[in-house]
Every structure is written in structure tokens, then in C-alpha cells.
Amino acid sequence: MESENNDDWLWFLAMLHGCLGGLKLVTMSDRHKALVYAVPRVFGLENHSYYTVHVRENFLGYVGKRGIRRNASKDLVKEMFNQMAYALTSTQYGQAL
Predict the structure, then answer these.
(1) pLDDT per residue as tens digits for the range 46-81
(2) For residues 84, 24, 27 and 90, what is the CA-based torsion angle, rounded to 10 degrees?
(3) Beta strand 27-29 with 48-50: parallel, antiparallel or unpaired?
(4) Does pTM top 0.85 for this prediction?
(5) Which residues sit opposite 29 in a β-bridge?
(6) Is residue 27 within 8 Å of 47, Cβ to Cβ?
(7) DSSP-assigned letters across all residues of 19-84
(8) 90-92-96-97 Cα dihedral, nearest 10 degrees
């Protein structure tokens, strides 16, 4: 692949899909925009999940740009995010949110 763009990811995933012979694949990604575009087109949306560590780090970068920079504050935000990400029920998710 020349770069991580939509066309290259579509090609790669189509080749992978062909090699799997129809087996369902669960794709876990870091939410790169080309993967968000390509995975559902080749494998379907129901089998695409996001790697929580990447999502959390992206979120921490987002809140860091809005003034949360001290370690204690970042640790609290991490814990709040983890409670939402790992909630087993909609009630637990709502409480964490």
C-alpha cells in the first residue's frame, strides 16, 4: 500500500476478505478515517469495533486542549471514560456518563 487512504484500505480489505473464503472477521481499529470508511464496505458495520485505548487517548487529547492538563485531572477523566467504555448495561453507562 502506498499510504493509509480509502482506496488502498478498500483494496487490502477486499483481498483479505477473498482469502478468508467467506469467514466473518471482527475488525478492531484505532478509528483511522480510512478504516472507518473501508471496513463497513467490505465486511459490514456489525463486525467493526474500536480499540478502547486509542479512543481513550484521543479523548484525553481532546479534553487536554480544553484545559484538563494536570495528572490528577487526567486520571479522573480516564477513570470516567473507562467506566463508560466497560459498562455492561445501559443503566451503568448512564450513571458513568
Answers:
(1) 777 777 877 888 888 888 888 776 767 888 888 988
(2) -10
(3) parallel
(4) no
(5) 50
(6) yes
(7) HHTT----EEE---HHHHHHHHHHH-GGGEEE-HHHHHHHHHHHHHTTT--SHHHHHHHHHHHHHH
(8) 10
